[in-house]
Design goal:
191 residues, mainly alpha, Four Helix Bundle (Hemerythrin (Met), subunit A), two-stranded antiparallel sheet, 8 helices
């Protein structure tokens, strides 16, 4: 598999670069402060992505034989990106999605920005390298566990990782937009 030209890998890299580029554009206060009550700050979203990607990179670094021994082989073909996203959204429908405690990030300060960005970029690049070393048939025959989707193929985990990065970029943007479009109260309107 060619690292930069394979869509599985290039889409993953592009998604996380776009997420980091957007985060870089934010001022320190916006970066480290939750935009709305009960929401994560942009920095917390990035730390969540680091924790999620870190687990995937760690498990993907296990020898292929150990992965197969622990989780077995796929008994179905890999789903497409759209089918995987639909399944994920279906599984979450009707429930308030909440990240397991390990994946829920603590508050972050703007002084941690460089460290957070470097860590996410390193993990993304490491995961891309791991994927590029997988034989194509292994991507579709080996399974890994996912907390919502259950057992999914390595290809599906890569597709989900791309979706997950896009999802959190969209959540950051949505929450920030909500703070700028808050209606002005009657007492704050100009006369």
């Amino acid at each position: 598999m060619n690292n930069e030209t394979d869509p599985l890998i290039s889409n993953l890299i592009q998604t996380y670069r776009e997420t980091l580029d957007f985060a870089i554009s934010l001022d320190d206060l916006t970066y480290a402060s939750p935009p709305l009550a009960g929401k994560w700050s942009p920095a917390q979203h990035l730390v969540h992505l680091i924790r999620s990607m870190g687990i995937v990179v760690w498990v993907s670094s296990w020898p292929m034989t150990l992965q197969r021994l622990v989780w077995g082989r796929a008994n179905r073909p890999s789903r497409s990106y759209d089918a995987l996203v639909d399944r994920y959204q279906y599984r979450l429908a009707g429930i308030k999605a909440k990240s397991p405690a390990f994946f829920a990030p603590p508050a972050q300060s703007a002084s941690q920005r460089q460290q957070i960005h470097q860590r996410l970029l390193r993990l993304t690049n490491r995961y891309a390298q791991q994927l590029s070393k997988c034989p194509p048939d292994y991507l579709d025959s080996q399974i890994l566990p996912h907390p919502v989707l259950g057992k999914i193929t390595i290809r599906e985990m890569a597709l989900f990782s791309t979706y997950h990065g896009r999802l959190h970029l969209n959540l950051i943007q949505r929450d920030l937009e909500a703070t700028t479009s808050t209606p002005i109260s009657i007492h704050e309107q100009p006369h």
